[in-house]
Automatic annotation (TrEMBL):
<dbReference type="Pfam" id="PF00535">
    <property type="entry name" value="Glycos_transf_2"/>
</dbReference>
<feature type="domain" description="RNA-editing substrate-binding complex 6 protein">
    <location>
        <begin position="693"/>
        <end position="784"/>
    </location>
</feature>
<feature type="domain" description="RNA-editing substrate-binding complex 6 protein">
    <location>
        <begin position="485"/>
        <end position="684"/>
    </location>
</feature>
<dbReference type="InterPro" id="IPR002935">
    <property type="entry name" value="SAM_O-MeTrfase"/>
</dbReference>
<protein>
    <recommendedName>
        <fullName>Catechol O-methyltransferase</fullName>
    </recommendedName>
</protein>
<dbReference type="InterPro" id="IPR050870">
    <property type="entry name" value="FAST_kinase"/>
</dbReference>
<keyword id="KW-0808">Transferase</keyword>
<dbReference type="InterPro" id="IPR029063">
    <property type="entry name" value="SAM-dependent_MTases_sf"/>
</dbReference>
<dbReference type="InterPro" id="IPR029044">
    <property type="entry name" value="Nucleotide-diphossugar_trans"/>
</dbReference>
<dbReference type="Pfam" id="PF01596">
    <property type="entry name" value="Methyltransf_3"/>
</dbReference>
<comment type="similarity">
    <text>Belongs to the class I-like SAM-binding methyltransferase superfamily. Cation-dependent O-methyltransferase family.</text>
</comment>
<keyword id="KW-0489">Methyltransferase</keyword>
<feature type="domain" description="Glycosyltransferase 2-like">
    <location>
        <begin position="232"/>
        <end position="323"/>
    </location>
</feature>
<dbReference type="InterPro" id="IPR001173">
    <property type="entry name" value="Glyco_trans_2-like"/>
</dbReference>
<keyword id="KW-0949">S-adenosyl-L-methionine</keyword>
<dbReference type="Pfam" id="PF26188">
    <property type="entry name" value="RESC6"/>
</dbReference>
<dbReference type="InterPro" id="IPR058917">
    <property type="entry name" value="RESC6_dom"/>
</dbReference>
Length: 1300
């Protein structure tokens, strides 16, 4: 008989039931066997078996308990079977079905102690349990002692699965189980030395680990050796914590040490030299960079040379025990060549405390073939084809070379960037995979080799064995591991991008083991493991926080890659670890300068993803980015730009460098990178600041490049790419016909069905924002929305509001979509319920409501808009000024006086201060009296009396009604001046200093309070002086055309001469409108004033009523672009004599052109623009003073109550007969760009602090930029007359055709 590789297991406490006939037969044979005295002393047991560790373990176990019962032998008879019989043990051999048992004397020992059965193992075990049960009449005193399994059984194709299944089915019969074993090879073949414990012990739920022993695996002569003894060979890096113990443990066993340090920074080298000197121990220390495990390990063995016969390789966390016995082993087997050898003594892992019987002891004299083959494979000149040829010509491989071949092929593919299929579909690759599967090689690789191979196979997307390797690794980890094994395996799973059951099981086991040993993790292991879990989206927040805690403890040891991977991992799963992020945010400038491209890209991306701001970190990183931008790839450029924009940190120099590098011809940008770059530029804050306002950086050249590049690769765009790209162009108001046609074709072609609601609504919004009326696109989208259901679109209210707004702007009203929208918006649990889930309504919800209300009116769904208002009113919600403004616009558009009063009443009920409530209630009463509804006016005034809200204007209105009782109290609503820190500035969650939203209208209510207290009823000059006095005394800036600007308006009225109609865009509190109307009423003129803020409109109605000018001033509430068409509908052509713009400067030219297109300006009209220098109206000034049909002069003056800041007020005479009047408006790109910058500082003034010095600097810059664009109007300076009043002398109209 041929000795076979074998393993031994002991099973205790069997239970179950079996067949009666089989039980009786087995019981009978066991009794005969127990009484048999036959020995097998004449059986020839080879010396290899006699001296094997297997026999030693059996002898020790059986000798300690000689009364133990039979041994169950699963497998063909072997020399070990014979040995057991010779030791007078009863052996039950379990054969396979259909296989005949040995019958002749040569193969079968003649003894009753050997029982051959062919029944299934489960039945055998069940029957044995019954025999050793509680029934006295059937009890056999000696229970079964061992279950003996041959390794060959488990290495055959399919055998492992079958055996595992069998044992799993038997497992419920075992109340307790202890597992131990050995595996031997007499013919020099490598044996899967850990397969049984790693595969079967978990199946059996064994509590203890298997101790495995394997003889030296290398066979060959010792020729070429120049010395004997044992050399310790190590690869180390940052092992200072335990390296001293490791060295001291091998002093009595090893003759010398060869240590390769791959970059320690913790003093490991000094400790090594110190121990060598103190112990007089020969130690050779080499320092070289780490390449990969196989290459660096082979380099260490090469450095060891031929001076020692044996090599012991340990890790820095391992300690040898029983060194003296190892010394005796080395001495005894010196010069040994071939055959199997007894195993060496164990080493102990210092972290886990576990002992192992598999020390990596290597005997020099490795087979020449193996060494030569390894050198062939690791040659740097190899190509993929070279390596595959080596594979085909040198089969079979030993385990190390097999792992090396697989790993090298994966690295070559990555380095050469060739398709996976070049390797995985090659028959020679299949040879390697077949050897892994068939020979059980995967079971015997050390964990580090297994991790390397797992990574290699994963990186090649080789799905055929990835799951197998992950499954094996998960079972091995259950037996113990070190941090490097855990991190390497996690890294392999991440590389595979696997999310199947095997990958999930492996990561769960990695998580369990990592939690136990996290304190032993080095920085690299922490970072790799964290990165891997985040990469596959396995959100193990507890584990990542443990990693982050440990990283903080070892922060000084972290390098740039460790830092970036850790924060990237936290950001990817949206977990904020405050202490670690804070530490990273304060990273020193020199550390940042040492970060590689991927590292600082990941850091800023992570901070932005977690919405964490760090002015210091981002400013320091910007310097690094600019310095090495040319080395960044397109993804890094896009990620960095995205990160800076995400937190609204705009550095114009940084963004310029990023854009110009991205535009380099040799670069190729993917759709994702193009979309992210465009989004970043559109979302950036204003220059040099961090803000929540996304002003954007308008770079026409850059956006033209983005558009051109996107058109070329349009078919590759995903839904999100399309959405982000067109959103960016729309936000920057940059139209590009070819781009939007390409994106439209992409959407309508195959992409529209793949759009999620947010992407679809963003695309529609973008087209509408740029007034691109692509009805084909909108019709296709309508079909898709109706097909999916409006509920699908309205999963978030913003998607629905954006979509409705877009259809309203382009005036597209597909009948089926309109019907679906009406049904959803009026449903019981529809849009409104989702929008108002959080109360009070936030800024975003109020904006979405406002968009929806206006758009419904545009889509002829006005009744639905009022349905929403009724719901808001019923619930007593504060809908926000924008929504109220839109409802007032609709009421004015439809002349629905009742609804207008309803809106003002809702504003009064939900106002945040008593002063604002009183102003709104007074506005309700004024409008009721105007419409002739005295009954409602009386009710309002009575309510104000009950709420103690009556003020002097309320009393005037009460007296007008006549029959109301006197109010219980009349007086002003209390108002006091607040310090700025009380009402103007707050700090938001990002740490930005912001102005409070207009919820109190503090200054405007104070102005009204001052008017009613100090301004005489119906005395306009006194009222104006009260407003000016309030501003002066309280040192509060108000957006008024007062003082010098008021003098300009007076002069314009005089120049025009009895103007019949003044249209004002920007009412505010009513100062300029009452100033002009008080003069115009004498000749029957009137003022139409447009105001977008409904609370300003309500306060102005109080001012106008107190001035007695309600009959001469008409207030239209809403956005000017929506109100201007009403002029056309309600007024005759050429009826506007004076057009006064006191609004956002970058909208003035658009509104002016709308009015001109409607032919509403009279032949002698004068156009006045306020604040055209500060913040500025570049497009308006260019058209009025350079290219358009106007004759313009400006008055250079100081902004009202800000004596330092210069501003301009423009006065333009309309020249309808000039050639320019027949030309379309065209604004140069540089002027548009200047307008964009103007909006930036305007928004900054709204949300942040802008000093007078900053304003003055801006004004001077605008002067220079205006001049560069040709804007050099005639300037007029105001002066003061003898009474100290401001005066201005305007230049008369010079145009020859002027008839006025």
């Amino acid at each position: 008989m041929v000795p076979r590789c074998s393993a031994i297991f002991s099973l205790l406490a069997l239970c179950g039931s079996g067949s009666d006939s089989f039980r009786q037969e087995l019981q009978s044979k066991l009794k005969l066997a127990k009484d048999a005295d036959t020995s097998l002393d004449n059986v020839d047991v080879p010396l290899a078996v006699e001296a094997s560790r297997c026999s030693q373990l059996l002898r020790a176990k059986l000798g300690a308990a000689p009364s133990l019962g039979p041994v169950i032998d699963m497998g063909a008879p072997s020399m070990v079977t014979a040995w057991l019989l010779r030791e007078k043990k009863v052996v039950i051999s379990v054969g396979e079905e259909g296989r005949s048992r040995p019958a002749d004397a040569a193969t079968r020992p003649r003894t009753r102690r050997w029982i051959w059965v062919t029944q299934p193992l489960e039945l055998l075990l069940t029957t044995l349990r019954e025999l050793f049960g509680d029934r006295e009449e059937s009890r056999i005193r000696e229970p079964p002692s061992l279950l003996f399994i041959e390794a060959d059984q488990l290495l055959q194709r399919g055998a492992l699965q079958r055996t595992s299944h069998t044992l799993r089915s038997v497992r419920p019969l075992l109340s307790d189980l202890a597992v131990s074993g050995v595996m031997l090879s007499d013919d020099g073949k490598e044996v899967p030395h850990w397969m049984l414990p790693s595969v079967l012990a978990p199946v059996l739920d064994a509590k203890n680990k298997m101790n495995i022993e394997l003889p030296c695996w290398t066979i060959g002569c010792t020729s070429g050796l120049t010395g004997g003894g044992l050399a310790l060979v190590m690869i180390v890096k940052n092992e200072a914590r335990l390296i001293r113990q490791t060295l001291q443990s091998v002093l009595e066993a090893a003759d010398r040490a060869v240590i390769l340090d791959t970059g320690s920074t913790d003093g490991t080298q000094e400790i090594l030299r110190e121990v060598s000197q103190q112990q007089n121990f020969p130690l050779e220390l080499y320092e070289e960079p780490f390449v990969d495990f196989a290459t660096t390990r082979n380099r260490a063995l090469q450095l060891a040379g031929q001076s020692s016969e044996f090599v012991l390789m340990l890790s820095g966390d391992e300690t040898l025990v029983h060194g003296a016995q190892l010394r005796r082993f080395v001495t005894q087997h010196s010069g040994y060549c071939g055959g199997s050898m007894p195993p060496v003594m164990p080493y102990v892992n210092q972290f886990t405390g576990d002992a192992s019987f598999y020390p990596p002891l290597r005997k020099k004299g490795r087979s020449e073939r193996s060494v030569t083959l390894h050198r062939l494979m690791v040659s740097p000149e190899n190509s993929i084809e070279d390596l595959l040829r080596i594979v085909s010509e040198n089969r079979p491989f030993d385990t190390d070379n097999l792992a090396t071949a697989i790993h090298k092929l994966a690295k070559l593919r990555r380095n050469q960037n060739v398709p996976y299929e070049v390797i995985t579909e090659d028959p020679r690759w299949m040879m390697l995979i077949q050897q892994v599967v068939e020979n059980g090689t995967a079971f015997i690789w050390p964990m580090r080799l297994l991790a390397l191979v797992a990574w290699a196979v994963a990186s090649l997307r080789e799905r055929r064995i990835t799951a197998l390797l992950f499954d094996i690794a998960a079972k091995r980890l259950a037996l113990g591991s070190v941090p490097q094994d855990l991190s390497s395996l996690a890294w392999a799973v991440a590389t595979a991008r696997a999310k199947d059951a095997a990958a999930a099981a492996l990561l769960r086991q990695v998580s369990i083991e990592s939690t136990k040993t996290v304190q032993s993790f080095g920085p690299q292991d922490l970072a790799m493991c964290a990165w891997a879990f985040a990469k596959v989206s396995m959100r193990d927040a507890r584990l990542l926080h443990l990693f982050a805690d440990e990283a903080l403890e070892k922060y000084a040891e972290l390098n740039g890659q460790n830092l970036s991977n850790l924060v990237w991992s936290l950001a990817t799963i949206r977990e904020n670890h405050e202490p670690l992020m804070h530490a990273v945010s304060r990273t020193r400038a020199e550390t940042i300068q040492g970060l590689a491209q991927q590292e600082f890209s990941n850091v800023v991306w992570s901070f932005a993803s977690l919405l964490r701001t760090s002015e210091m970190l981002f400013r320091r990183t910007a310097v690094r980015v600019v310095g090495m931008a040319a080395q960044l790839d397109s993804q890094h450029l896009a990620n960095i730009a995205w990160a800076y924009a995400k937190i609204s940190h705009r550095d114009d120099g940084l963004f310029y460098v990023l854009s110009r590098e991205a535009m380099e011809p040799e670069r190729k940008c993917s759709p994702l990178n193009l979309a992210n770059l465009a989004w970043a530029f559109a979302s950036a804050g204003w220059h040099g600041e961090m803000s929540t306002r996304r002003v954007g950086l308008r770079d026409p050249k850059f956006f033209e490049w983005v558009a051109t590049s996107a058109v070329q690769i349009a078919p590759q765009f995903t839904s999100q790419n399309c959405s982000n790209l067109v959103w960016a162009f729309a936000t920057m108001r940059i139209g590009h016909q070819e781009l939007f046609e390409a994106m439209s074709n992409q959407v309508q072609g195959w992409l529209i069905s793949n759009f999620d609601p947010q992407h679809l609504s963003n695309v529609l919004w973008s087209y509408a924002k740029l007034a691109i009326k692509n009805l084909e696109l909108f019709d296709s989208a309508a079909d898709e929305i109706v097909k999916r259901g409006v509920e699908y679109l309205a999963r978030t209210p913003q998607n629905l509001s954006n979509t409705v707004w877009a259809y309203g702007v382009v005036a597209s009203t597909p009948r089926h979509l309109m019907s679906a929208l009406e049904h959803h918006l009026t449903a019981v649990r529809g849009f409104y319920e989702k929008l108002t889930e959080v109360r009070p309504l936030g800024k975003s919800s109020r904006a979405q409501l406002a968009m929806t209300v206006l758009s419904l009116h545009r889509l002829n769904l006005t009744s639905v808009a009022w349905h929403l208002f009724d719901q808001v009113s019923r619930d007593g919600l504060q809908a926000g000024g924008e929504a109220y403004s839109n409802w007032l616009f609709i009421a004015g558009e439809t002349r629905n006086h009742r609804r207008e009063v309803d809106v003002f009443e809702q504003m009064a009920r939900t106002a945040h201060t008593r002063g604002l409530q009183a102003a709104c209630w007074n506005a309700v009463a004024v409008r009721c009296l105007t419409f002739g509804d005295e009954g409602r006016a009386k009710s309002v005034l009575q309510l104000m009396d009950r709420e103690d809200l009556c003020n002097p204007l309320s009393e005037v209105l009460r007296k007008r009604l006549g029959d109301l009782p006197a109010p219980s109290s009349v007086g002003n609503i209390d108002w006091r001046r607040r310090e700025k820190d009380e009402h103007e500035w707050v700090t938001n969650s990002l740490g930005f200093s912001l102005r409070l939203n207009k919820i109190e209208y503090y200054k405007e209510v104070g102005t009204l309070h001052y008017i009613l207290s100090h301004g005489k009823y119906q005395d306009v000059p006194v009222i104006h002086r009260a407003i000016e006095a309030f501003t002066r005394e309280q040192e509060l800036w108000l957006k008024l055309a007062g003082d010098e600007k008021g003098a300009v308006l007076d002069k314009v009225l005089a120049l025009q001469g009895k103007a019949k109609l003044v249209v004002e865009v920007g009412l505010y509190v009513g100062y300029s409108s009452t100033r002009m109307a008080s003069q115009m009423r004498h000749w029957g003129g009137r003022v139409i004033s447009m105001e977008v803020d409904p609370y300003h409109a309500a306060i102005a109605r109080n001012t106008i009523e107190w001035a007695g000018l309600t009959d001469y001033i008409e207030i239209w509430c809403g956005h000017s672009e929506n109100l201007i068409p009403r002029l056309k509908e309600r007024l005759p052509e050429k009826s506007i004599d004076i057009l006064f713009f006191d609004q956002q400067g970058t909208k003035m030219h658009l509104d002016l052109q709308r009015i001109v297109d409607f032919n509403m300006l009279s032949e002698t009209a004068i156009v006045v623009g306020d604040n055209v220098l500060r913040p500025g109206a570049p497009q308006f000034m260019y058209w009025n003073s350079v290219a358009g049909p106007y004759e313009t002069q400006v008055v250079s003056l100081r902004e009202y109550k800000q004596e330092v800041v210069e501003d301009w007020m423009s006065i333009s005479f309309w020249l309808p007969q000039s050639p320019e009047a027949r030309m379309p408006m065209r604004i140069p790109e540089e002027v548009e760009q200047l307008g964009h910058d103007t909006d930036g500082i305007r928004w900054q003034s709204v949300e942040s602090k802008v000093s007078e010095q900053q304003w003055e600097s801006h004004s001077q810059r605008m002067r220079r930029e205006f001049a560069a664009c040709g804007i050099k109007p005639f300037e007029v300076l105001p002066y003061q007359d003898a009474q100290g009043r401001s005066q201005v002398d305007l230049r008369p109209k010079l145009y020859a055709g002027y008839a006025g």
